Amino acid sequence: MWPGVERIVLSESTLSDLRASLEKERSDLQARLGEMGLLSGGDLAFDQNFADSSQVTAERGEVEALAGSLREALNDVEDALVKLDNGTFGVCEGCGQQIPPARLEAKPGAKLCMECASKR
């Protein structure tokens, strides 16, 4: 915690709801990555003998971008769950201020308050 920062205490009920939301999101993300064959760190497989290699290249780029976004979202969710366990959930990684509860309810995996997020 940053010195001089007032901490907003979330109720146990709110924390429980946020944890349930994060766990569901983690499960959904894992399922999507699993459907793509990427949950255990596997690589994307494309038919190299396909007649239109430019189409394969384009599709590969789209799928890799989607997979990267899903992995990033999964990492954010897992980080948020760790923070819930160690008592640092809801603290902005940019300024150290408490992330407002409304933002956490809208995006439980948020790492930054709105002010810090808008600077990026």
> Helical proportion?
55-70%
* Distance between the amino and carboxyl termini: 22 Å
Q: Quickly count the domains.
A: 1
Oligomer: single chain
Q: What is the name of the CATH superfamily? A: DksA, coiled-coil domain
Annotation, overall tally of beta strands: 0
Per the CATH scheme, the topology name is Four Helix Bundle (Hemerythrin (Met), subunit A)
Number of helices: 4
Spans of at least 5 consecutive residues with low confidence: none
Known CATH architecture: Up-down Bundle
SSE layout:
Layout: H1 12-35, H2 53-86, H3 101-106, H4 114-118
Quick overview of this protein structure:
The protein has 120 residues and is mainly α.
Give your account of this protein's structure:
The chain is mainly α and 120 residues long. It has one domain: Up-down Bundle (Four Helix Bundle (Hemerythrin (Met), subunit A)), CATH 1.20.120.910. Helices cover 57% and strands 0% of the residues. The chain has four helices and no strands. It has helices spanning 12-35, 53-86, 101-106, 114-118. Helix 1 (12-35) runs antiparallel to helix 2 (53-86). The longest helix has 34 residues, at 53-86. The model has no long low-confidence stretch (mean pLDDT 83).
Question: How would you describe this structure in keywords?
Answer:
Four Helix Bundle (Hemerythrin (Met), subunit A)
